[in-house]
């Protein structure tokens, strides 16, 4: 659960490789705007930035406390940073309908949503692909490689050489399970096995 | 011409001549000419100044504003009002300006009926029965169409002596057939000759008089019988002491009550008064009769009192009169003088001429001080003297304050400048005792104050608003305004706020704006948010070309830099409070965005919104 910045592959994700958008070097970008339209536009920009950044770094979840010190939220060259509180605002916005549900608080999904205060909102999923989309991607790969009706372990899906070229290679197992659940619901897959050795069969 | 067009200030009040002072204002006033109402001059403000009696319409002030010069007024008359008829003040024009008949009319009338309403007796029948006799308006000539026998007016520019076959003639108004030239020329000549004969033969006018007389007697009788109440049900005229109708038994009390309301009720404003009204009004008409101001909401008596005083004082004479010989004047010119002091100083005058250099300067200064002393001494001896020499005292006060301003230059020059202006601002004060009593006096005071304020703000000479960058907070304005009033008749904050709120309703050229924080500011009506934003953005764009003073890590060529409210306040001459509000307004509109830093808040051009779309093209 406390998978902080679970960098999976780490193969190509160099620190300087990410090209930040131009507004990343615009000082007011790091102050949340009170004016509504400007704020919406700003949050949208932040959401785009976080998704792009996570996709580039192959991050599937963020721990906010740690992330605010990374170059995602902190522009060292400019000497500006987004405060932890504002970062929470941004993630909260991404979690909402407005932000396209591109994020989700880890641990908040159970019951107590937000009520437990800032402590509960320490880490979040960043869905640069939503679980439904991941399901589609995996299904497409299974289709393309003709592995229907075969049984694959989750480990195979994540770590085997066969999936190396795929985006879901090195994905967070938790997220993979959620994506597979989507497929199960659609009746396209079946998950079985115990905690450590989960297998999945695609139809 | 008796009624003159009136120039209005930006605040839709009569613009006063130099030395003219406002004496009285009353609203809900209608205008009569003779005994006829003048249409569209029926609901307005009456302004009495030391020089004029003015009417300004409520609906269309620019179009319907007229004034009567008091110097043309022969005498005023007051009619206290009776039953449904409102109190009226009648102004009779001077005899020299009027025709023989109309000057005779007031003499004739009192003999006919010494009743309380003489003004109604004479007047406009003259106007309606015969063309006015003074300078003949050519339009009064008519030609009769030979086809349909409709009588058409001869065109005003038609001159029978110069007309030829090429002169354009208008066709008959009824049948549209063009008349023969000879026909029209004949008619015009006939009209000319009859008009020339008219002053000798007063035949049609006599007719007018007789009709007036009969009308007058009829009305006079009516006025005598009038103290009775018409039963609302059966129209029987009952004795006033009866409570129920003698005829049908209906209660008369309601009728009585209504009467009381009309006379003294506070909120009853009669839009329509029952008097007959005049068909159309032409201000250029010379055969004008007496003019009546009808006071439908009271105030007539005070108006009349002040009018009488103004007619006695004849302030307008002062305008052309030479200034009162002052000691200062006499000592410098050394004429006959007239003042003992001047005579006394005469001997020393010879000596003064010889003294030159510093001694001469000192002597001159000494004499000046002496003269000032005398002026002040005389002025404050009694109130009357103060009134007559008010002009000099004010001049002196201005001079003193100017000197004081020079003396403590390092103090606050603006304050002393304001002080020196304060004396001249005395001329336009609206004070509570200047306004009509009765029903609407409070709201009238507020509306007058509102206009007064608008004038004060938009006056180019003072430039109060301009100096503050076109916008100032209401509290600041209140302070400046009260200061300009010179410490007398100060305006209470409550009245002030109410007056400011009236600007919109009165369509004055300034407006009151409430910022989100609740701060109230005053600004010109033409100054919109869009303009403010445009000027802010223009400023921020300039900053793209100026490298920031301190080291900066962002691309200032592209983003410019952030500005603080202090910088904006300095740049535009706003107060810091106003600058904050303006910047936040611009932020609200999406033109600016903010950056919160440890050293304060800065405002930037908003690249967060249009940065997205245009960034690709811009970089």
Automatic annotation (TrEMBL), chain A:
GO terms under biological process: macroautophagy; protein transport to vacuole involved in ubiquitin-dependent protein catabolic process via the multivesicular body sorting pathway
UniProt keywords, alphabetically: Cytoplasm, Protein transport, Transport
Name by which UniProt lists this protein: Vacuolar protein-sorting-associated protein 25
SUPFAM superfamilies: Winged helix' DNA-binding domain (SSF46785)
Gene Ontology cellular component terms for the protein in this record: ESCRT II complex
Principal subcellular localisation of the protein: cytoplasm
Pfam families hit by this protein: ESCRT-II (PF05871)
Compartments it resides in: Cytoplasm
Domain of life, source organism: Eukaryota
Lineage of producing organism: Eukaryota, Fungi, Dikarya, Ascomycota, Pezizomycotina
Family: Belongs to the VPS25 family.
InterPro entries in alphabetical order: ESCRT-II_cplx_Vps25-sub, ESCRT-II_cplx_Vps25-sub_N, WH-like_DNA-bd_sf, WH_DNA-bd_sf
UniProtKB/TrEMBL annotation, chain B:
GLUE N-terminal domain boundaries: 6-323
Record keywords, A-Z: Coiled coil, Cytoplasm, Endosome, Metal-binding, Protein transport, Transport, Zinc, Zinc-finger
InterPro entries: GLUE_dom (IPR021648), PH-like_dom_sf (IPR011993), Snf8/Vps36 (IPR040608), Vps36 (IPR037855), Vps36-NZF-N (IPR031558), WH-like_DNA-bd_sf (IPR036388), WH_DNA-bd_sf (IPR036390), Znf_RanBP2 (IPR001876)
Chain intervals for the UniProt region annotation (Disordered): 100-135, 322-353
Record's function text: Component of the ESCRT-II complex (endosomal sorting complex required for transport II), which is required for multivesicular body (MVB) formation and sorting of endosomal cargo proteins into MVBs.
GO MF, any single term: phosphatidylinositol-3-phosphate binding
Annotated family: Belongs to the VPS36 family.
Keyword Ribosomal protein: no
Keyword RNA-binding part of the UniProt annotation: no
Protein name (record): Vacuolar protein-sorting-associated protein 36
Main location: cytoplasm
A GO BP entry: protein transport to vacuole involved in ubiquitin-dependent protein catabolic process via the multivesicular body sorting pathway
Pfam family, one: Vps36_ESCRT-II
CC terms in the record's Gene Ontology section: ESCRT II complex; late endosome membrane
Taxonomic lineage from the root: Eukaryota, Fungi, Dikarya, Ascomycota, Pezizomycotina
Protein's cellular compartments: Cytoplasm; Endosome
Subunit annotation: Component of the endosomal sorting complex required for transport II (ESCRT-II).
Species this protein is from: Lineolata rhizophorae
